[in-house]
What does this fold into?
Amino acid sequence: MRRARGATLIELMLGIALLGMLLTLLFLIFHMGWNAWRSANLRSDLNDQSRLVVQSLSRDLEASVYASLSLQGEAVSFLSARDDAGVFTLDANGDPVWQRYVIFHRDPARAEVVRAELPLAAPLSAPEPIEVNTGQPLASLLGPGRVIARGVKRLALSVPLNGRRLRMEVDVEQPQRGGLPPARMTLSSAVHLRND
It folds into this structure.
């Protein structure tokens, strides 16, 4: 009668080594997929934050006029003809009745872009910058408001020499885990203002 033969030590070690290599390969494939998903998710978050700033500012600014535009550092203000219900108000001649100033600014301490409103004591029929109406510089009127986006490291605003549009650049940054440098994205856009 023959004895049942078991695996030798070398066969057992070879089997364990093959299993270890297979598990390492599976882990590497999973890890690469996880990193790709995390990277795509991070880029999507950065894109969303920068796009929120550009879209919010563009939507409000397109309904304003160049004559009311005021820039100072990372802040911009302009008139809005929207009333408390959000309805764009016109007078009997079809001209806008300006209700409030809209102010967008970056809060450097919190790295947030904030949208605030400054209601007018009486509606205006002729547009003018906020400094003319209030007698104060725009920087002194910055305050709390609705947070539009977080992680904004820079909000660059300018009016080209040919005017009638506002150029903006939004730099957004988000920290990464594992000692990696922060992820960054810059979005540039321009908004054309209405004729006066």
Remarks:
- The mean pLDDT is 88.
